[in-house]
Amino acid sequence: MNKKNPHTRPFSMAERWRSFHYAWRGLVHAFRITHNFYIHAGIATLVILLAFYLNVSRLEWAVLILCIGLVSAAEALNTAIEELVNLLHPQRDDRAGRIKDMAAGAVLICAVCAALAGLLILLPPLLASLFT
Question: Which of 10, 30, 54, 105 could join 125 in a cystine, given CB atoms 3.0 to 4.6 angstroms apart?
Answer without folding.
Answer: 54
